Structures are given as structure tokens and as C-alpha cells.
Amino acid sequence: MSARDEILERVRAGVGKPDFAERRAAAEARLSNPVRGPQPVVGDQLASRFRARAESLSSTVGQVAALADVPAAVAAFLHAGQLGCAAVATDDVAALEWAGAGLDVVARAAVDADPVGISGCFCAIAETGTLMLLSSPGTPATVSLLPETHIALVSVGRIVATMEDAFALLRRESAGMPRAINFISGPSRTGDIEQTIVLGAHGPCRVHLILVEETP
């Protein structure tokens, strides 16, 4: 018997136990009514807490009043960093007036040669300065993972206090779990080389967040 056959045989044996249905029902009941553990007191100033935590993780943060102001803010950021004017974007932000700001933005999955990726986010977590992104055909994870620069648009109204609040929001608004959930807390980093922190080792070397005050 191969290792694969052995594993599958053990799975079949477990599923065939007399109390399997009972154990499955108990597991589903627990998942549908999650119990929260201890959580920190984050306070009511979610946007300012999120911004401070994100900046402590080496993200840069800008803010605009409305979605219509985003293309100009992105163009200014790219120009200041001499990062060019080309980018790929997820479908949820592709309809903005990028060309009017002098940017060449295409809605598609990213490849490793793309310098900039622009995305929205499902929500943001004030406790840790973290973005929560859901993968889908229109929001491929490559846009936030492959380019050296990731720019994310964050609606101030979608900033929640804790990770538990983020998952509660997902359960309320989604019919099921997406294929992948990505949590982004600043640029990619590693300390593997002589315990020296290096940004961009496994993903973007810079993350720029634009807080949007306007509620969609």
C-alpha cells in the first residue's frame, strides 16, 4: 500500500465511524456560532489606529476625500518615487479615471514583470494595520503579490477593529469562503539573511495605502 492509499484508507475509516454524523454536526454548529476569545480594546478611532499601525509596518499612507480623487493621488505617488505610469489593477478599481491622471492602468492578473499593482480590499483591520483581500476571477491575488509596488485603496468605512470583526463581516456579506484570503501587513520582509530585515524578499518591496473617506 502506498502512502496515498494509506492516508485515504484512514480517512474512509474515520468517515465510516458510527458517530461521524454527530461529530460533523457539532463541528458545523461551532463554526456557525464562533466564540470570541480575549481581544484588545482598540477604541473608536479606527482610521487613525489603522494608519499608525500600517505606518509602523513600513507602509506609506495617503488619504483622499472621494474615489474620484484616487487617480491623481496614485499618479503623484508614482511620480514622486519615479515608479513610472504603468500598472495592473483588479476589476473593482479598474473603472476609475486613470487615463485622465496620465496613468496606463490595465485590468488583469499581474505577471512578474509588472512594476505596480493597484487593488481594493475587502476590509482593513485597525488592530494590526492589516489588509484583508479576497481572491476571485476579478480580484486575482497576483495583483497584490507580484509587482514590486502594491497600492491598495481602503474605504474608511471598511476599517474594522479586530481580526474577529473582519471574519464576522465576511460571514455576513459572503455566501461562502473564497478560494483564498490574503492578509497584508506592510511590504514583504525577511530576516533570514544574517538576521537583517530585507524588504521585498517574497513580494512587494513597498506598499502604499490610500484611505478613501467617501463611503461607496
Q: Write down the overall geometry.
A: globular
**Unreliable stretches covering 5 or more consecutive residues:** none
Helix count, DSSP H or I runs of 4 or more residues? 6
CATH class of the largest domain: Alpha Beta
Class computed from helices, strands and strand pairing: alpha/beta
How is the CATH topology of the largest domain named? Rossmann fold
Relative helix content:
25-40%
Strand element count: 12
Number of domains: 2
CATH evolutionary superfamily of the largest domain: NagB/RpiA/CoA transferase-like
Notes on the protein architecture:
This protein folds into 2 domains: 1-33, no CATH class; 45-212, Rossmann fold, CATH 3.40.50.10420. Helices cover 29% and strands 23% of the residues. It has 6 helices and 12 strands. The strands form 3 sheets. It has a 6-stranded parallel β-sheet, with helices on both faces. Strands 8-5-6-9 form a 4-stranded mixed β-sheet. Strands 10-11 form a two-stranded antiparallel sheet. The longest helix is centred in the first third of the chain and has 13 residues, at 3-15. The protein is globular and about 65 Å long.
Characteristic terms for this protein:
6 helices, 6-stranded parallel β-sheet, Rossmann fold, alpha/beta, 216 residues, 12 strands
